[in-house]
Design brief:
The protein has 283 residues and is an alpha+beta fold. It has two domains: 115 residues, D-amino Acid Aminotransferase, Chain A, domain 1, CATH 3.30.470; 156 residues, Alpha-Beta Barrel (D-amino Acid Aminotransferase, Chain A, domain 2). The model has no long low-confidence stretch (mean pLDDT 97). The structure holds pyridoxal-5'-phosphate.
Length: 283
């Protein structure tokens, strides 16, 4: 049985408790982070901690613990749960208060963390096979740059993909791809990597930031702009990035093969660089 962290205590998962009045439960009034673990170490913890701070500040929420304590909690859970490859999930909610739409004046934020073991995460077969995606309208709220726990529409998107025999969905708004249900989306045309510019319409992926930096260091050309599904279907390659999938090729969009319909060299190279560099800097 896993040990999880709840509001200051490490407890067996079946003893962890959160109030029925918790605003995360009642209003999705909470934010989260997912940090991957390779070789028992955290990948880009500093990036996730910085984004958490920003998400909290956008929602006028206090961080329940310092960044140093947060790192210590992550490390402790990785250690006691013997995670070699996997994830640490963290959630901060505004806490428990009598139900009212207005933010309560004095709720104490709730902090929950747990691990998920994912043996073979770095060596996922999907990276060699590639993913098939469908396009769906983006029906999420407008502040997707805040990493909130309102994930119902992305969940519905995954189910739509599954019903269509695909692996995931890319969401489209005003004719342009925003992002995947739980990842950032990219295409490659010639020697140029294209991914949507940052804004309130997408989550500012921590993996995205690292991959774009590494692509620039490797002299690859990057354009941050919108693209359409038609442009993606006509691209040489497509891929997604996220903390839990790293760089994952996309080989089919709405039933149309992308390029040769097989994982391409740019995605493969970026995946390799990303995994190498991230392992070196893991904490
Ligand atoms: N976009 C969305 C909507 C996501 O949910 C995620 C990850 O959960 C990402 C992008 C990728 O972000 P990161 O690289 O920080 O995991």
């Amino acid at each position: 049985m896993r040990t999880v962290y709840v509001n200051g205590a490490y407890v067996p998962e079946d003893e962890a408790k959160i109030s029925v009045f918790d605003r995360g439960f009642l209003f999705a009034d909470g934010v989260y982070e997912v940090t991957s673990v390779l070789d028992g170490k955290l990948i880009d913890f500093a990036g996730h901690a910085a984004r958490l701070k920003r998400s909290l500040s956008e929602l006028e929420m206090e961080s329940p613990v310092s960044e140093d304590d947060l790192l210590e909690i992550h490390r402790h859970l990785v250690r006691v749960n013997e995670i070699d490859e996997g994830l640490v999930y963290l959630q901060v909610t505004r806490g428990a208060a009598d139900r009212d739409f207005a933010y309560p004046a004095e709720a104490r934020p709730s902090l929950v963390l747990f691990t998920q073991a994912k043996p073979g995460l770095a060596d996922a077969p999907a990276a060699k096979k590639g993913m098939r995606v469908i396009s769906i309208p983006d029906r999420r709220w407008g502040r997707r740059d805040i990493k909130t726990v309102q994930l119902l529409y992305p969940s519905m998107g995954k189910m739509m993909a599954r019903a269509a025999g695909a692996d995931d969905a890319w969401m489209v708004e005003e004719g342009a791809v925003t992002e995947g249900t739980s990842n950032n989306a990219y295409i490659v045309k010639g020697n140029t990597i294209v991914t949507r510019h940052l804004g309130e319409e997408i989550l500012h992926g921590i993996t995205r930031a690292a991959v774009l930096r590494m692509a620039a260091e490797a002299q690859m050309k990057v354009e941050e702009r919108s693209f359409t599904i038609a442009e993606a279907q006509d691209a040489d390659e497509a891929f997604v990035t996220s903390a839990s999938t790293f760089v994952m090729p996309v080989v089919e969009i709405d039933g149309e093969p992308v390029g040769a319909g097989a994982p391409g060299p740019v995605a493969a190279r970026l995946r390799e660089i990303y995994l190498d560099e991230s392992r070196k800097k893991a904490v």
